[in-house]
Structure formats: C-alpha cells, structure tokens
Design a protein that fits this description.
The structure holds 2 protein chains of 2 kinds. Chain A is an alpha/beta fold. Helices cover about 35% and strands about 15% of the residues of chain A. Classes of the chains: A alpha/beta, B alpha/beta.
C-alpha cells in the first residue's frame, strides 16, 4: 500500500480535493499544514476531510522556504504515517499543489515491479547543474541562520563574511552531500531507517544550518540505507532557471495525459479542467505505461531557452539587447555588394537569375530604399521612405532580414548611400560583404557633367569609401569580407563572381554560364589620368593604363563572357 | 526623477476634484481581482464589445472616467453591474489626456491590485490568452515578483477605404480591421526613463513617411501591479519609478510580453477626426489628428500587399511582436 504525505500551505481547497481522491482510492494520507495558515481556515480544512478515516493531520510546524522547517514537517508527517498505517509499504511525498495524473492502482502496479527501490533524485553536488545563485557546495559548508526571504541583506552579508573568513563547517562523518528534487517515494524500510537512525540528532543539527535542506536531507541520508536507488522523481516537477516551478494550466491537459507520469506539480489552483479531469476516475489508463516526461521537459526547456537567449536577430518590445549582447545581430546571412552595380549593367537582374532570389538595389540609397522589383513596400510592410529608414537605419536592416527569414537577402551598397550601418554590418557575422573598390568612379566617368563637379564628387566618394574600407579591414570585423580593386576585378571577374554565388547558394554548385554585362570602360584610364591632372589622387581603382589596351573583340551585344 | 514623480502625483491628487462620481460600485473590486481603468468620450457604439471582451478575459471590475460624452455612453456604463463611473467635464488636454484622473483612481482603488489601463479601442492580447484567463498571467508574474507587463500597440486597419464597412454595435472590430503591419517597427531606448520608444506601423508608414520623429509612440505598459506612489508619466507609455519601465531584456533574452490590438481605424474614425481637429484636445496640438485629416480626405487605404491578417496571439509571437518568454 502507498501512503501519501502531503505538505500544504495555501489553496487548501485544492489540497482537500486531492487528499480525498487518494483516501477514497484506499491510500492513507497524512497532511501537514503550515502553522502560518490561520486557525479558522485550518479547522475548516480538517472538517472538510473529517469523514475519511484514513486521513490524518500531523503536528504543525511553521514552514519557511529554504530552512529546515520543511524537512522537520516532512519528518513529523512521515513518522505519523509509519506509525498509524502499518500496512504502508511506500511513502510518497507530495505537496498541496500536486495532482495525480494516473489512478493509484497504476502506481501500485508500478511499484510492485520495483519492490525494493527508492525513487528519489539524488545527485552528488559536483554534478548538479540546476542549483541557482552559485550556492551548491557551499550549501553544505556554510551556515545559514538568516532568512533568505525576509532578511536577504543579512543572508547575503553573512555568506560573504564566511567566505571572507574562510569559515567552513564540517560535514558529519559518513555523509556525502547529495541534492535532488524535494519530491520522493521511499520504501518503509529506507524511510524508517532514516527516521530511526541513532545518529539522527547529529544529522538534524547539521542540516538545520544547511541551505534548502528539503532538497538535500533525504537525498543525502538515503545513500546510507537504501538497497537500490532509482535517482529520479516520480513527481513531474520542472524548475526554471530562476528556481521557480513551472506551472500547469488547463491547456496542458493533453500533454499531461500523454506523459503517463503519476503525479504532476505544480498545478495552477484555478485550472478547473485539470482538476476535474484527473480526479474524475473516468480516465482510461494503461497500468503498464512508463512515465515519459520528455515532451514536457522539452516544452519547458524551450521556454527557458527563449527567456535566456531569445530569438537571434529579433529586436522587439521585450527583447532589446545592448550592443554586443545580441546573440546574433541579425537573424540570417545576407550579402552586400559594393561596386558591382556600377560596373555591370543590370547586375541585380543577373544575380537574381542565378541565385533564384530577389535582389535589391541600393536599399540605403539617398532617395529611397530601392527594393527588388521597384517595390514601394516590402515584406513586413517595410516602406521605402528614406526618411523613415534613416531615422533608425539599424531597425530598417534588422527588420528586413527578420521579415524575409528563409530568403537570402542581397543588396547593393556604396559610398553614395547612407553609411550609418558600416560598423553594424562589418561586425555582423551574418554579413557577406564583397567590394570592388573604386567602382563608384565608373558612373562618374560615364556621366556627362562638368569636370570640376566630377572631380569634387570623386574626391568625396573616395573619402567615404576609404573610411568604409578602414572599418571593413579593422580587427573587429566579423563579417565575411572580400575586397578587390577595380582593375584586378575587371581583369578576371568570373572567378570572384562564382565564389560569391556559391557562398549564397552552397547547395547548388552550379557553374555560372553567363557573365553579367560589363559597361564599356574604353577611355577609363584616360579619365583617371584627367582626375590626377586636376589634382585629385584616385587610389582605389588599382592600375589602369592610360591608353586602352587593344581588347579581345568584345561585342557590344549578346553574351560577352561564357565559361564552361 | 523623484521630483517628477511627486509632481505627477500631486497633479493627480489635485485633479481628483474634477471627478464627479456617477456610480460607485468599488466595493466589488475584491482582493486579487484584476481591475481595468479607462477614460473615454463618446464611444457608445464600441462599449458593448469592449466590456464583453474584457469580462471574458477575467477583469474583476471596471473603472471609467467619462469626459463629457453626449451619446449615451455615460448612461450605458452606469447600468453595468461591474462598472464604477466618474464624470469629468474639465479639459482632457489639461488633465494630461486623462492621465491625471486615471493616476488618481489607480492610487485610490488600484493599490495592491493588478491594474490594466486601456482605451476603448485597445484590446489586450497576451500569451495563452485564448486558453488562460488574465489571472493566470498575473499569478505567474507575481510568482516572479514582476511588477509591470509590456504590451505594444499594434494598429489594426481594414482593407480598402476606412469607411467601407460600417461597424455594428457589439461586433468584434477585428472582423473589419483585421490587418496589421508585422515588421516595420523602430525601437530606441529612452535614456531618461529607461523605457523603449517604439514607432512604426501603418501610422508611420502612411501618415508620417517624411517626418518620422512625429510618428506616434507604440510602446505601452498597460498592466501593472499597482502600489501607492506609482504614477504614469505619459499616457501608458512610461511609468515612474523607472524600474517599472524595464519590461524588456537587454542581454539577449526575451521577457514575456503582450500586444494591444488598436482598433482605431473603423468607419467611426473620420467622424472622430473631424471632431478632434475642431476640439484640439489631443497630444502635440493634435498634429496626429491633423495628419489623419489630411490623408483621409482623399480616401487613403492603409492596407498594402505585405499587410498581415490577424489570426491569434501565436501569430503575433511567431512574427516577433510579442513573446511567451519563459511562460509555457
């Protein structure tokens, strides 16, 4: 027979419902009610269960979280259980906010299969990762006379003082500190051995000053007596990263049913559907089923992950990371092309064809954000207004990348554009930046404008691009950066283009069969020389001979460059 | 900051004289209940659905301030069993857009409760809101000692001209205005108050594409476990003391948050604009309303190809407008 020891401090109505369920199933229940519960409420609670002869109430103790009082309460109740119900073979420790998910008969059948086994999570402190607040080994070697809940300052100060003075307590001989979930199911043999130990006074005195002994008292002592320990709890209770228990609601019904766990904690007191369903005794059950908490584990660990790490690249009302704490500045890789659209005619269209994606123009262009296909609004209802974009340039980029998750974004960039995002992109590991330096001079070369204006403009653009290149070449750069000078690139454009396209679509290693059409650069060397003659020093283009080399016949129409 | 807080408090206490109780059923606001506070003017047609929506959410008691309605709003509210109503005929603008009145009521009746401050066209959506009542959320926040909960304003709009489909009393406004912008919000941090300043959405896109700084703020912190001494500093956008504004995580994690679906753009809107432009009782010389006025003269459509159609909170969470955080 299984006896349930129940520790209650609030929501006694729910506790009574559950106690009644167990008692009516034939399992004795011993209830400990926190002394802090007012007398009137307590009496009403006792009265509500008065008709059941296998429900007892143990000596009441003031319970304060983190102190020995909870362990003491467990001891009182367990002693009463063993004394009053000699038929009880296993004692199951539960709380007032636990809910049985399967009938007691299932649990009995299950325990019959493991007659001498104690189900108690018991892990040596060197291997526990779930303790919160840095106190793991120190739980056992420092003293904790102050309340963490009401005397936090003294608690913290006293811990620091002990650390400073290197004060250590001696752990009683023979004990190896273990930690684990508070909720266990022990055999009569083990439990009575713990409670009747001749050295119990010594152990109790020691644990009275241990921090959170309810997670270590039985977990440690069980190692002395148990024949066989199954280090897991039969109670489904999950804690999050702040040490708070996860709560179950009505919408977890199916999840709880399929988990085949015996008892779950903790249940939201107003989860009427859960209480009605699981206490109805109408649930079909499979007595053979093994508990499978994995699905629920996953749900909760995902929730914790979301709280701690969040979704990479997302900036929103409740996730606004400081710089360098982003855990992903953007949510996906993207490619930035600098100079390509100046050098090639319809580069966007060519690239779009080869990678099978939309390719933007200069999204940081001075007049508007040049979205692919000339759209005025893009995914996520992102408008092309330059004013809105420049108002918060970072939000513009991160929004664009976020709203197009699953589609690799490519856009053009250059010294004529808003430069505010240079550092952001350079330090973003998701960025793939390819630069043909000095290509901005090509449109100037082809423009029919006053040469003095051209010279001024060239000097301005060169200055901007040099500053930008300094950023890209800095030691803080995390982006994948490739830089070619214009002259090098013009000499052999296909290989770099192939590399870039492969990087965007690594899965389809397709050879480029068609080159983008390069603008006619006849006379470009002369143009650069003219700039020099006027006193400007163009340095970013590389070496262009002043006289054009006789080019291999380069037909003005058709496909100039075909590589097999 | 403390001085600023004191100043708003004193203002609220002084402005309480402008409030005349119409019906007081405040004893109904029992311990542990979530209370709703709202200022309104001429919103009769919206009230039935508004009350139903929030009753279904599990609001325990409603506190309304009626700012000079003449369309029957006052009479309608006075009849409701779970409403306490005050009337204030003084200037909306000079009560800081109703905030002084609300601050007073919050101080007087909200202390110790979870309080939700919304407008009649704002519909609070929170994670698991379709399966769990608001008490589940506030109990959970209590367990983590969280005192305030952020919910960004999401502007909802219809497809086509704004007055094409008339709103019927009692109807869910999201049946008509079911579209929203999913990914054009701009966030910056307010270094003084510590809150985030969020702008964007259809109003920035359509009404303020050339003067973004003037676009309305969308950040809101409507749900607060109220204590004496708390005060809303500017609408529900920010609070004092400043710690209440930290509803976001700064080291990469996501805190739990919700949204306020803002069903402002219904066929009732152009009429409201006309009235407000005349009345000039709104923020920044009603520049927002003037901009609406200009734009709606030629039947503007807020809808665009990339507008998203509202389904439920899970959709908002996937799109990244709100988050479950570690609530599961």
């Amino acid at each position: 027979m299984i006896g349930f020891v129940m520790l209650c401090h609030t929501e006694l109505g729910r506790a009574a419902q559950v106690a009644r369920y167990w008692a009516e199933s034939g399992s004795p229940v011993v209830i400990h009610v926190d002394r802090r519960v007012v007398k009137k409420t307590y009496r009403r609670f006792v009265k509500s269960l008065a008709d059941l002869d296998n429900v007892r109430f143990s000596r009441r103790q003031r319970c304060e979280w983190g102190t020995f009082s909870i362990t003491a309460a467990t001891q009182f109740a367990s002693e009463l259980m063993l004394r009053a119900f000699p038929d009880v073979g296993h004692v199951f420790l539960v709380s007032g906010s636990c809910l049985p998910l399967r009938p007691v008969s299932d649990l009995e059948a299950y325990l019959k299969r493991y007659p001498q086994t104690d189900f108690i999570e018991s892990v040596t402190i060197d291997e526990v990762a779930w303790t919160v607040g840095g106190l793991d080994h120190e739980r056992f070697t420092l003293r904790f006379p102050f309340s963490w809940q009401t005397q936090r300052w003294l608690f913290d100060k006293y811990v620091s003082l002990q650390r400073l003075l290197r004060l250590r307590r001696k752990i009683p001989v023979g004990l190896v500190p273990h930690l684990g979930s508070q909720w266990w199911c022990l055999t009569r043999q083990t439990l009575s051995a713990i409670l009747e130990d001749p050295d119990r006074a010594v152990y109790d005195r020691y644990f009275e000053r241990v921090w959170i002994p309810d997670e270590s008292y039985f977990q440690t002592l069980v190692r002395l007596y148990s024949r066989q320990i199954e280090s897991r709890s039969l109670t489904l209770a999950k804690f999050d990263f702040q040490g708070k228990p996860h709560v179950f609601y009505d919408d977890h019904l199916q999840l709880l049913r399929r988990s085949d766990c015996f008892v779950a904690r903790k249940i939201w007191p107003r989860a009427d559907v859960l209480y009605e369903t699981f206490l109805s005794r109408r649930l079909p059950s499979d007595p053979e089923a093994e508990p499978k908490p994995a699905k629920i584990d996953r749900l909760f660990s995902k929730a914790v992950e979301r709280r701690k790490r969040g979704r990479a690249g997302l900036y929103m009302q409740s996730r606004f990371p400081r710089e360098h704490f982003e855990n992903g500045k953007t949510c996906a890789t993207y490619s930035v092309f600098e100079g390509f659209s100046d050098l090639f005619e319809d580069f966007d269209g060519w690239l779009a064809k080869f990678i099978g994606n939309r390719v933007h123009g200069h999204i940081y262009g001075p007049k508007r954000a040049e979205f692919a296909g000339g759209e005025v609004v893009f995914n996520g209802a992102l408008p092309d207004s330059a004013a809105l974009r420049d108002y918060n340039p970072r939000a513009f980029l991160t929004n664009l990348i976020w709203s197009t998750r699953g589609e690799h974004q490519c856009f053009q960039f250059g010294p004529r554009d808003n430069q505010a995002m240079s550092w952001f992109m350079a330090t973003d590991p998701n960025a793939q930046i390819s630069v043909v330096t000095g290509a901005w001079a090509v449109p100037l070369f082809r423009a029919n404008r006053n040469f003095s204006d051209i010279r001024k403009e060239a000097a301005r653009l060169q200055r901007i691009e040099m500053a930008h290149l300094d950023i890209l070449r800095s030691v803080w750069t995390k982006a994948r950066v490739r830089i070619w000078s214009l002259s090098d690139f013009v000499d052999a454009p296909m290989e770099p283009l192939q590399t870039i396209v492969d990087e965007i679509r690594p899965q389809s290693l397709r050879r480029l069969t068609e080159a983008p059409r390069m603008v006619d650069l006849t006379g470009f060397g002369k143009f650069l020389q003219n700039l020099k003659n006027q006193g400007m020093q163009p340095v970013l283009m590389g070496n262009f001979p002043v006289e054009d080399l006789p080019k291999p016949a380069n037909p003005p129409h058709g496909r100039p460059y075909v590589v097999k | 900051m403390r001085l600023a807080r004191k100043r708003w408090l004193i203002r609220a206490i002084r402005k309480r004289r402008e409030l005349t109780p119409v019906v007081k059923r405040t004893q109904m606001a029992r311990r542990g209940e979530v209370l709703l506070f709202c200022t309104l003017r001429n919103e009769r047609i919206r009230l039935p659905y508004f009350l139903r929506y929030y009753r279904d959410l599990g609001i325990g008691h409603f506190f309304f301030v009626d700012n000079g309605s003449d369309d029957g709003s006052r009479e309608y509210l006075a009849e409701q069993p779970d409403v306490s109503l005050w009337s204030a005929d003084a200037s909306y603008k000079r009560s800081r857009f109703g905030m002084d009145w609300i601050n007073w009521l919050l101080r007087r009746y909200g202390t110790g409760h979870w309080t939700l401050v919304v407008d009649v066209d704002e519909f609070f959506v929170f994670p698991f809101g379709d399966t769990r009542p608001i008490r589940a959320l506030t109990d959970w926040l209590d367990a983590y000692s969280v005192r305030s909960f952020g919910a960004m304003l999401v502007d909802m709009y219809p497809k086509g001209p704004i007055d094409a489909v008339p709103y019927r009393e009692g109807q869910n406004p999201m049946e008509i205005a079911c579209w929203f912008d999913s990914g054009n919000y701009m966030i910056s941090k307010n270094p003084v108050y510590g809150n985030l300043w969020i702008q964007g959405g259809p109003r920035a896109r359509v009404f303020f594409p050339t003067q973004p700084a003037a676009a309305p703020s969308l950040n809101k912190i409507p749900l607060v476990r109220w204590e004496r001494g708390y005060v809303y500093a500017a609408s529900t956008h920010m609070l004092l003391p400043r710690g209440l504004n930290l509803v976001y995580d700064e080291v990469g994690g996501e805190k739990t948050s919700g949204c306020l679906l803002h069903a402002k753009f219904l066929n009732t809107f152009p009429h409201k604009v006309e009235e407000e432009v005349k009345r000039r009782e709104h923020f920044a010389a009603s520049r927002e309303y003037l901009a609406y006025h200009e734009t709606f003269k030629d039947n503007a459509d807020l809808w665009c190809k990339w507008s998203e159609k509202y389904i439920n909170w899970r959709q908002l969470e996937i799109l990244g407008l709100m988050s479950k955080g570690n609530w599961a």
